[in-house]
Amino acid sequence: MSDQIADPAKNFPVTWEELHRNAKALSWRLSDRGPWNGIIAITRGGLVPAAIVARELNIRIVETVSVKSYEHQSQGEVRVLKSPDAVPDEGAGWLLIDDLVDTGKTATVVRKLLPKAHFATIYAKPAGRPLVDTFITEVSQDTWIHFPWDLNPVSFMQIPR
Ligand SMILES: O=P(O)(O)OC[C@H]1O[C@H](OP(=O)(O)OP(=O)(O)O)[C@H](O)[C@@H]1O
Ligand SMILES: O=c1[nH]c(=O)c2nc[nH]c2[nH]1
Ligand SMILES: [Mg+2]
């Protein structure tokens, strides 16, 4: 959790409403590519998008893979804290959901674990884009996306746009 407002070239604050609409748009795009056996949410950022996609597509099986690499806005080594349980056949027919791809390092590691899963995110930056099968919105590499779960309403209003 960070309310830190650092200094990337561009700030892109996202409201809960925008996030919800974009996650629904992602669901509708994915519904044409199904049916899906289940969802694997990449924690923590993928949890809320995965919950919305699960409801929208009526998917009841949701696994997690826990990955960490950022401390505030600085990336370190990508660490898998927990592998997904009970996902057969290298993830074939499963959806891997995250909030975004940035450098693509997280996606690279998770794709190695589940090479046949379909990787979907709401946002993509150019460096990570080739690793995503389906996404909704592209933002430039020098943009920092501020998700609503990392902000309180006061700091949201203070982010320079
Ligand atoms: O493409 P990359 O440069 O690897 O960055 C993308 C990843 O970074 C963030 O996760 P983070 O490691 O910050 O953990 P979190 O999901 O718990 O916030 C985000 O949720 C993605 O998973
Ligand atoms: O909240 C976030 N916004 C971002 O733009 C980003 N890139 C990597 N990890 C991120 N987390
Ligand atoms: Mg993450």
UniProtKB/TrEMBL annotation:
What InterPro entries does the record tag this protein with? PRTase-like (IPR029057), PRTase_dom (IPR000836), Xanthine_Guanine_PRibTrfase (IPR023747)
Q: Report residues binding xanthine.
A: D102, I145
| Binding residue positions for Mg(2+) | D99
The cofactor required is:
Mg(2+)
Q: Which reaction does it catalyse?
A: IMP + diphosphate = hypoxanthine + 5-phospho-alpha-D-ribose 1-diphosphate; GMP + diphosphate = guanine + 5-phospho-alpha-D-ribose 1-diphosphate; XMP + diphosphate = xanthine + 5-phospho-alpha-D-ribose 1-diphosphate
Q: In which pathway does it act?
A: Purine metabolism; GMP biosynthesis via salvage pathway; GMP from guanine: step 1/1; Purine metabolism; XMP biosynthesis via salvage pathway; XMP from xanthine: step 1/1
Bilayer topology annotation: Peripheral membrane protein
Which positions bind GMP? D102, T103, G104, K105, T106, W144, I145
Q: Where in the cell is it found?
A: Cell membrane
GO MF terms, alphabetically ordered = xanthine phosphoribosyltransferase activity
Q: Where does 5-phospho-alpha-D-ribose 1-diphosphate bind?
A: R44, G45, D98, D99, L100, V101, D102, T103, G104, K105, T106
The Phosphoribosyltransferase domain covers 16-151
Q: What is its main location?
A: membrane
Main EC class of this protein?
A: transferase
Which key words are in the record?
Cell membrane, Glycosyltransferase, Magnesium, Membrane, Metal-binding, Purine salvage, Transferase
Q: Which residues of this UniProt protein bind guanine?
A: D102, I145
What Pfam families does the record tag this protein with?
Pribosyltran
Q: What does this protein do?
A: Purine salvage pathway enzyme that catalyzes the transfer of the ribosyl-5-phosphate group from 5-phospho-alpha-D-ribose 1-diphosphate (PRPP) to the N9 position of the 6-oxopurines guanine and xanthine to form the corresponding ribonucleotides GMP (guanosine 5'-monophosphate) and XMP (xanthosine 5'-monophosphate), with the release of PPi. To a lesser extent, also acts on hypoxanthine.
Q: How does it assemble?
A: Homotetramer.
- What NCBIfam families would the database entry show? PRK09177.1
UniProt name for this protein: Xanthine-guanine phosphoribosyltransferase
Q: Provide the species name.
A: Rhodocista pekingensis
Q: Which lineage do the record's taxonomy fields give for this organism? A: Bacteria, Pseudomonadati, Pseudomonadota, Alphaproteobacteria, Rhodospirillales
